[in-house]
Design brief:
22% helix, alpha+beta, homotrimer
Chain lengths: 166, 166, 166
């Protein structure tokens, strides 16, 4: 009898957690506006993955975006010697500026984004965004959609990908 | 006789000052452009109040904006313990980046804006804008207008307002 | 005979270098998109000059722009005493944010742009852009075109040019 009660209680709690999670993730992340889309990301959303997912689902040929919010973020500075990004994490910071573009690299969406962040000292840090997750707040992004598909291709002169307009 | 002259002189000067003030404040602060509005604020204009006033007068359902200029500004960092913003003032600084949104909270316009500033050392500081006044220069803002009304509502998970797309 | 070979070799090499240069400079720098234009600048391109050239060639009445990339840049802070810009150079830095406007001053295009940069320490610096050249990377700019011509005129109250909306 006790086992049955515990089991039913467990089922109920699991169900409620699932529902909460479903409600949370079912909240709309973007809506169509004349310029393109307005995106609002919520706590624990991963910014680059949400933008990639959006581009795939909405079949976006290319876009430019600007935004701001509150995040945990990893910047990387490209080292041309090692050809790798030296990363640095910033936790629980205001995202005071974000600029980026959505394009394609072969069959995958390719996000290129730069950000500026600040903490309770207000000192600003910035860089190429390797990773960003929404903190105790939100991230608001205006996505201006283009009508042509643009690819990132390697510019041999610099050995790095550049957005091609051809 | 002398009293009359002094009185008339006083009336004239007051009238001229009133006119100058009227000319200054009658200079257009924004014009309609295809994307929405281009706003140019002048010395001593209060940035957030001008955006609120614009939204009310033009009956804007919602908007995203970007801008830059020269300001006296107060940033605040939200302390989740005290639930207050710890403020810091920056005087006579370049506003090198501003990103924000205009939405509604019940019957009032609600501005959310982040900025980055720098002084004669070029070191950058940024944060959530609590207050900003145009300094010896201007502030130029591109306002991209949306066609739906968006509300800021409390996200209980984080205890802060979030722009709702529903 | 040897003289002839050397001469022909010289002609060939010169021709090839010319061709490479032509291919490089013939790569499209901007394309029309619904919001206006998407511009992608390449290594060694001068940012302000490319924007001025674009405005002249495409007969742009006025525009607002946002962008990001990788640059060598010179910021200036206006000294109201000397009425000159105190400059400072930053080499091989991420351009993490750029905001600006294209307008006219008499018969010339007039660019006003502010930027934020960061290096491998991720510390951010910002200011009024006096000069910027694309480094080992690119600069991506979204140009939102307006349908009215705007002039920069002197605001006598502050002794500096302000974008006029009249």
């Amino acid at each position: 009898m006790i086992r049955l009660v515990v089991f039913l209680w467990f089922v109920l709690v699991s169900f409620e957690l699932l529902c909460q999670d479903k409600i949370r993730s079912s909240v709309k992340r973007y809506v169509k506006v004349p310029a393109g889309y307005l995106m609002v990301l919520r706590q624990n959303d991963r910014v680059l993955e949400q933008l990639e997912n959006f581009a795939r689902v909405e079949n976006i040929p290319a876009a430019s975006f600007t935004g701001m919010g509150f995040v945990d973020i990893t910047f990387g500075f490209f080292d041309f010697q090692t050809r790798k990004y030296a990363p640095r994490d910033f936790k629980s910071v205001e995202l005071v500026s974000m600029h980026g573009t959505i394009a394609w690299k072969k069959d995958s969406t390719s996000i290129h984004a730069h950000g500026v962040v600040s903490d309770n000292t207000f000192q600003a840090f910035g860089g190429h965004i390797l990773n960003a997750t929404v903190g105790t707040g939100s991230v608001e992004i205006l996505i201006t959609v283009h009508d042509k598909q643009f690819e990132r291709t390697k510019d041999d002169a610099i050995g790095a990908d550049v957005l091609s307009l051809d």
